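Pasting as-is:
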Amino acid sequence: MSSEIQPSTAAKSAPQAIDVGRLEKELAASWQSAGGAEESGVTRVCVLNLIIYATREEDRAQRDELLDVVTAHTPARALVLVADREATEAKLEAYVSPLCQEESRGGAKRVCGEQVTIEASGASVETAASALEPLVVPDVPVFLWWKDIPHGEDKLFNRLVELSDRVVIDSLVFDHPHEDMRQLARIIGTHRQYLLASDLNWGRLTSWRNLVASFWDVADYRTHLDAIDDVLIEYDAPDAAPDEIAAQALLLIGWMAAELKWQPTGEFAREGKSARWVLQAGEGRKINVEFRPAEDRHGCDGLIATLTLKTAATDAEFYVGVNEEWTKLETSAKIGDARSVGRVVTYEAKSEGERLSRELSMLSRDEVYERAVASAARLLEVLQKS
């Protein structure tokens, strides 16, 4: 990534503003210094706007690495808003730089995006969206990557949502998964007319969901699956909230309950470290759903370890789990005394930048995800009332 131009700094007294004209001139100058002319082998491209909200505690080197990965796939104007809400002094500063990959081989042109970093502190954080809005490139999509926990009462979050065509979060970082998941459901429900949500944690569940759904592809299994009466999910407890169920586990059962039309009965109980709900599936059939913390593993914070589905009437069991090395997902099925090994797939170990790049290719509403969040929130409402 190219070195940065010196900051364009707004006055310290309110109201804060950024000189957009000056920033655009600095960007133009940076392209010249980076060899931005066509004959220099660099092509300036912007296929989308990527707004990134991060707190001051975020590691800048990691953020720059993420942008390198993202722009390798999708040249964009990245508008990085770094907020220091705890500061007493109101301040607004902006830096610009091109976003280019290393020199390509064979003399081909490099395709580059560009970055504007806005550092806001104190009272200026609340008005930062107004400073950022004029920098959005028109006529291309706007994505918001909210690298924090979303809160419905946050004015800055709400304003940036209004500016964006799609909002990307990561529920893996929820430090209070129960309340944060309920908050997410409220946000999606309140802003549904214009909020299209993505979740990197939902993306991590893609292989899990595909493997679970594949059981229903086997005709001989369907009678047993239609009579499921016991579900067990084991997960690595989140370090930030070890007594709460990991967001990923909540999303998985939320997805299953929503798609299979399972509804909470209001029955909930804790048994040691485990939590158990009773769900209703049609008339007369109840399903025990148990969440249980697994053995803590380094680097697996908040991730699912196993999913087991059982049918007592036919002594059937369907299983998906991670191997001991956390490198593969494996499935198996047992009906009576007959056990068969199913599929084995490589466990996805993608970087944050790779996962974000995937989300930037999507502009349609993910209704399956929204139903999963709403369903998980309904379960948590039962827990709160118990």
